[in-house]
Recover the amino acids of this structure.
């Protein structure tokens, strides 16, 4: 039941992350906060015998929550160091931490490893990724021109401040999708 709930929440959110990071190199804090709030509802609902964690007894629930918080805290700490060194974006770090909360019961190490591998593949395919970004940005702008009332901002790829590096939200989404579709219960 937890996997179904996680998929219902995470699949649309990760689709948004892919589009937003690919076009604008931005992962919105609002999305991260919504994902955090929805995860926090799980243990709270379990206290009332509701939701996917309802079957866990008191100590089982506490163990699950502490395990998830521990994993997310470590990722947040390492991510903060990498952000301070200019290696990753703040949105990527926050999204990774909240994904660790969601995916801790399904295979946290799987998520982290697949995310790292996906990031490596994105780095190897950076020229293709740059072409894909340009194509998607052009298509998005054409859509915006057809619907001027939407006031769609120009994607980062099409501006003078064309971003360098990898939109790591794609790698995070790949790791999360893999973990959701092929969970390893530990």
């Amino acid at each position: 039941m937890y996997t179904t709930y996680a998929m219902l929440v995470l699949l649309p959110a990760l689709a948004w992350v892919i589009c937003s990071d690919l076009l604008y190199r931005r992962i919105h804090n609002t999305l991260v906060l919504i994902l955090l709030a929805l995860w926090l509802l799980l243990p709270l609902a379990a206290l009332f015998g509701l939701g996917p964690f309802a079957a866990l007894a008191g100590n089982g629930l506490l163990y699950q929550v502490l395990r998830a918080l521990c994993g997310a805290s470590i990722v947040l700490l390492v991510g903060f160091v990498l952000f301070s060194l200019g290696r990753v974006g703040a949105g990527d770090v926050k999204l990774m931490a909240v994904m660790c909360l969601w995916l801790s019961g399904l295979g946290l190490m799987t998520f982290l490893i697949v995310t790292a591998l996906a990031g490596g593949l994105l780095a190897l395919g950076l020229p293709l990724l740059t072409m894909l970004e340009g194509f998607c940005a052009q298509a998005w702008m054409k859509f915006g021109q057809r619907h001027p009332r939407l006031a769609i901002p120009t994607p980062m790829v099409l501006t003078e401040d064309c971003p360098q590096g990898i939109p790591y939200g794609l790698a995070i989404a790949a790791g999360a999708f893999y973990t959701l579709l092929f969970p390893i219960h530990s």
Notes: The chain has one domain: 2-126+168-181.
